[in-house]
Amino acid sequence: HGHRVALRSDLDSLKGRVALLSGGGSGHEPAHAGFIGKGMLTGVIAGAVFTSPAVGSILAAIRAVAQAGTVGTLLIVKNYTGDRLNFGLAREQAQAEGIPVEMVVIGDDSAFTVLKKAGRRGLCGTVLIHKVAGALAEAGVGLEEITKRVSAVAQAMGTLGVSLSSCSVPGSRPTFELAADEVELGLGIHGEAGVRRIKMASADEIVTLMLDHMTASSNVSHVPVRAGSSVVLMVNNLGGLSFLELGIIADAAVRALEGRGVKIARALVGTFMSALEMPGISLTLLLVDEPLLKLIDAETTASAWPNVAKVPVTGRKRSRAAPAEPLEASVSTTAGGLTSKRVVLVLERVCATLLGLEDHLNALDRAAGDGDCGTTHSRAARAIQGWLKEGRLKEGPPPASPTQLLSKLSLLLLEKMGGSSGALYGLFLTAAAQPLKAKTDLPAWSAAMDAGLEAMQKYGKAAPGDRTMLDSLWAAGQELQAWKSPGASLFQVLTKAVQSAEAAAEATKNMEAGAGRASYISSARLDQPDPGAVAAAAVLRAILEALQSPGV
């Protein structure tokens, strides 16, 4: 009460053990309060944003843990002048009161190539010291021995940061500015400028540059990591990166280190010590042996410590063979089957149509979606063209069996097309293939259309009138019901189906979207046809025209 001090709620259970206190300015969350818990810190003292905590609060924390019956207190302090002074003064006052207190100052910054009088800054590696000290304290090790061992560990560790920009203390402007094509290397966790500005590069290039800087023997603050070394790798989000970006950096770091022959014993990836909203990362390398690794692996209840598998990263199998696909059943070409020439001509016409519509579909999609409908359909067209070309060179012609043909096209679109369109076309084709297993006459093709539409509605949750691709296909499906009547004409019915699909696509401009991304857009802004419906109608038109071509 009355201080910015957070302590373990089970403080009284620590009687007879060493207490561990840390802290510093706020703005580094989850450090330091996130590391309070059994097996890590006993408590933390927080200052204002990027400001050292008050001496009185630090002393209050020391007294609180001492009065709970602990046998000594270790202060774990990052190497900044204010922290050293305030924690140091509190330590002196506590010792004068007869409380046994030791202090370790952590400087793990590997940015500076020449020795500075102030020494190396304390960065994210401090969290690893919390973990090691916490495991030792939990095991009942004495104050002097913990101090000695964590001091040695701190010498085998280095951290380096890189960021796309600085951070902003609330109410203030960023501490430095970067051009759009620059990144800052070796910056601190309070928005201090780094040691070097470099041009924007790929994640692999940035990570390689960082590791080169951290491990170069000419750098006075380097980490002596070399081929055969075993390390704990910590990839830390400085506050403003997404999980995706953090994962990309972690992957690059693992590959780069293993490429140098370094064994990654453990990899910790997450936000451990941030700098407000800074969009950057830091990499920490700690040289480890088996005894030290056991301390890293020791149990803790600290909420911000990750649940890491207690097995090495290096040497683990990180991929497995894809499962074998079932063998295709042999299906004979029955009456009504397709000739390979006819299949190729139809598919080539469909592909050419979709490629020609790419810009138009993208323009329609920008009003209600993310503007990529044409790109998605073009990706499908190129995938089919590639399959046809590969077939001519290697695999032979497309299957004449309608079931096998539709199933193959379904797999191709699911894998290559992407987006919800790829999934919907894949569903449609997979379901449509089933009624064609037994028969391939016109009633079977009508039933195939019904099955495809049913699958799209079941999983896509769209209905006719919802302003989606289903509107065109549904309109065509209603006309294709005529194929179920004896003596129905292939081309007369198909022509009416295509015309109905085109009319339905045009009519979507007057519909209110009930499904898909467009359903989130005000209907007042939707004055163009749905691009998916336009594409589906165009596919049906291409099929009709190809089938009507001379010689097909």
Question: Which tags fit this structure?
Answer:
single chain; 552 residues; alpha/beta; Rossmann fold; Serine Threonine Protein Phosphatase 5, Tetratricopeptide repeat; 2 domains; 6-stranded mixed beta sheet; 5-stranded mixed beta sheet
Helix content: 40-55%
Total beta strands: 11
CATH superfamily of the largest domain: Dihydroxyacetone kinase, domain 1
End-to-end gap: 88 Å
Total count of domains: 2
CATH topology of the largest domain, by name, is Rossmann fold
Strand content: 5-15%
The neighbouring-strand order within the major sheet is 8-7-6-11-9-10
CATH class of the largest domain: Alpha Beta
The main sheet comes to: 6 strands, mixed
Radius of gyration: 33 Å
CATH architecture of the largest domain: 3-Layer(aba) Sandwich
Order of helices and strands: EEEHEHEHHEEEHEHEEHHHHHHHHHH
- The number of helical segments is 16
Mean pLDDT: 92
Overall, the morphology is elongated
Low-pLDDT runs of 5+ residues are: 331-337, 520-524
The assigned structural class equals: alpha/beta
Helices and strands, with pairings:
Blueprint lengths: L4 E3 L10 E9 L16 E7 L5 H13 L4 E7 L2 H16 L4 E6 L18 H14 L4 H12 L2 E7 L18 E4 L10 E4 L3 H13 L14 E8 L5 H17 L3 E8 L9 E8 L2 H8 L42 H17 L1 H9 L6 H23 L6 H15 L2 H15 L8 H19 L8 H12 L9 H18 L23 H18 L4
Parallel strand pairs: 2-3, 2-4, 4-5, 9-10
Antiparallel strand pairs: 1-3, 6-7, 6-11, 7-8, 9-11
